[in-house]
């Protein structure tokens, strides 16, 4: 099997899919297929364009067709939960699923969230330790912010959510507080960005501002100085370097983009499906190549 080409499909090929709408931009098929080929595994990952109205049928379909699992992306991450047979604790904490495993014996569907572990693994890979002395500012209060917040609630860090719509930030803060006793989470509006980032040790952009094709936008307010000793982590990976990252770097901050989180959430999904550790460096190279072409 060693060196099996990606194009090879036969009667024993095992399938995983990526369910999204749209899905054509997804890097997951290339990332996983490169890893399957490198490990000589007769597995393939295919993109599955699933209209929101057809999600329940599609999920029954992947089980019926003998798929081994799937990644789930926008807009299905929350909507898929009622159709799963069981979910892990990470799903209960985040309220979203990005990975499904199909039980080979009974076709039951189990939901996971590897965005959280992907973020935490990438922080560790970048030697960023979060503890009770950390002051983390999360920009945003949507799905990405929820995963980041859920990943950090146990760390002891003081967390501040900064969101354009304050009410949404307050709701997420209260949810995160209820998910982990004693965790310090507050929420403010964008106008308080300067005040709450002054002492920040880590700033995470979990908004979609700056994402391709709006690469000239930044969630940072004009005129607000960057705190000198903070690390800036942007969850966006397309483009590889956002305007926010460029501006923060110019002000002397260490900056990290979202590619590592993408790779590590994919690697965790790969392990859930196959029980094997994928070649991380190869997955990174495949994604870098695709993203550099854009
Ligand atoms: P995701 O699941 O990727 O987090 P989302 O749930 O749509 O996507 O959330 C997008 C986040 O980006 C939200 O925090 C959103 O702020 P609002 O809650 O106020 O909508 C933020 N966002 C999007 N466009 C923005 C903009 N132009 N300025 C500031 N924040 C923006």
Structural overview:
This protein has helices at residues 28-38, 55-64, 89-94, 114-125, 143-152, 166-179, 193-197, 243-250, 259-274, 280-293, and strands at 14-20, 43-49, 69-72, 86-87, 99-102, 109-112, 135-139, 158-163, 184-189, 202-205, 231-234, 254-256. The two termini are 33 Å apart. The chain folds into two domains: 14-113 and 262-293, Leucine Dehydrogenase, chain A, domain 1 (Rossmann fold), CATH 3.40.50.10860; 116-257, NAD(P)-binding Rossmann-like Domain (Rossmann fold), CATH 3.40.50.720. The chain is built from ten helices and twelve strands. The longest helix has 16 residues, at 259-274. The protein has a six-stranded mixed sheet with strand order 2-1-3-5-6-4, with helices on both faces. A six-stranded parallel sheet has the order 9-8-7-10-11-12, sandwiched between helices. Residues 140-145, 163-165, 168, 206-209, 219 line the site of 2'-monophosphoadenosine-5'-diphosphate (ATR). The site of 2'-monophosphoadenosine-5'-diphosphate (ATR) has 15 residues, from α5.
Number of strands: 12
Q: Summarize model confidence as the mean pLDDT.
A: 96
Helix content estimate: 25-40%
The tally of structural domains comes to 2
Number of helices: 10
Please report the first level of CATH classification, the CATH class of the largest domain. Alpha Beta
What about the largest sheet?
Answer: 6 strands, mixed
* CATH second-level architecture of the largest domain: 3-Layer(aba) Sandwich
Bound molecules: 2'-monophosphoadenosine-5'-diphosphate
* Largest beta sheet: strand ordering: 2-1-3-5-6-4
Structural class: alpha/beta
**N to C succession of SSEs:** EHEHEEHEEHEHEHEHEEHEHH
CATH topology category name of the largest domain: Rossmann fold
Rg estimate, integer Å: 19 Å
């Amino acid at each position: 099997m060693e060196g099996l080409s990606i194009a090879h499909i036969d009667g024993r090929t095992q399938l995983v899919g990526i369910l999204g709408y749209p899905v054509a931009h997804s890097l997951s098929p290339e990332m996983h297929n490169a890893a399957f080929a490198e490990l000589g595994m007769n597995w393939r990952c295919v993109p599955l364009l699933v209209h929101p109205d057809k999600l329940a049928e599609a999920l029954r379909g992947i089980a019926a067709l003998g798929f081994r699992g799937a990644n789930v992306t926008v807009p299905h991450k929350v909507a898929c939960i009622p159709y799963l047979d069981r979910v892990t604790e990470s799903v209960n904490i985040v309220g979203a699923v990005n990975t499904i495993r199909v039980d080979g014996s009974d076709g039951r569907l189990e939901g996971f969230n590897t965005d959280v572990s992907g973020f935490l693994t990438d922080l560790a890979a970048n030697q960023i330790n979060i503890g009770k002395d950390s002051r983390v500012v999360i920009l945003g209060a949507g799905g990405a912010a929820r995963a980041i917040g859920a990943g950090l609630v146990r760390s002891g860090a003081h967390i501040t959510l900064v969101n354009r719509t304050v009410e949404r930030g307050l709701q997420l803060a209260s949810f995160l507080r209820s998910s982990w006793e004693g965790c310090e989470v507050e929420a403010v509006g964008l106008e308080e960005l300067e005040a709450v980032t002054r002492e920040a040790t880590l700033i995470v952009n979990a908004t979609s501002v700056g994402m391709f094709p709006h690469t000239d936008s930044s969630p940072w307010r004009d005129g607000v100085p960057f705190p000198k000793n903070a690390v800036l982590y942007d969850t966006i990976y397309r483009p590889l370097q956002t305007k926010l990252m460029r501006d923060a770097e110019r002000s002397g901050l260490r900056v990290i983009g979202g590619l590592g989180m993408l790779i590590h959430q994919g690697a965790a999904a790969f392990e859930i499906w196959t029980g094997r550790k994928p070649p991380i460096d190869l997955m990174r190279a495949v994604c870098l190549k695709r993203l550099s072409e854009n």
